[in-house]
Every structure is written in structure tokens, then in C-alpha cells.
């Protein structure tokens, strides 16, 4: 099923949830940054156990 260009354009301008996409994108970037920072700390810190 193919939508006409006018329908796609109207959907994009009026109905598409741009705010939700923006929020989700920011959330995903924040989560990825936290993971990168945690991985970096784990790789660069040399904490020895007292065992």
C-alpha cells in the first residue's frame, strides 16, 4: 500500500509525534553516554580486591 505524497506530508506535519521522538532520542543518548562513561571507568580504574 502506497500513500500519496500529500498524505505522507500531512501526516508528517500534523500527526507524527515529533515531541515523543525527540524525548526518546534524548533518553537513548543519555543512556548510551552513561554506559560509555561506566565502561570507561571500568577499563581505566585498577581497583584491587583485598582478598
UniProtKB/TrEMBL annotation:
<keyword id="KW-0143">Chaperone</keyword>
<dbReference type="GO" id="GO:0044183">
    <property type="term" value="F:protein folding chaperone"/>
</dbReference>
<dbReference type="InterPro" id="IPR038052">
    <property type="entry name" value="Chaperonin_RbcX_sf"/>
</dbReference>
<protein>
    <submittedName>
        <fullName>Uncharacterized protein</fullName>
    </submittedName>
</protein>
<keyword id="KW-0602">Photosynthesis</keyword>
<keyword id="KW-0120">Carbon dioxide fixation</keyword>
<dbReference type="InterPro" id="IPR003435">
    <property type="entry name" value="Chaperonin_RcbX"/>
</dbReference>
<dbReference type="GO" id="GO:0015979">
    <property type="term" value="P:photosynthesis"/>
</dbReference>
<dbReference type="GO" id="GO:0015977">
    <property type="term" value="P:carbon fixation"/>
</dbReference>
<dbReference type="GO" id="GO:0110102">
    <property type="term" value="P:ribulose bisphosphate carboxylase complex assembly"/>
</dbReference>
Amino acid at each position: 500500500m502506497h500513500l500519496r505524497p500529500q498524505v505522507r506530508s500531512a501526516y508528517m506535519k500534523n500527526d507524527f509525534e515529533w515531541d515523543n521522538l525527540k524525548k526518546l532520542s534524548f533518553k537513548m543518548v543519555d543512556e548510551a553516554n552513561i554506559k560509555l562513561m561506566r565502561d570507561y571507568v571500568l577499563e581505566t580504574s585498577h581497583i584491587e580486591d583485598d582478598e
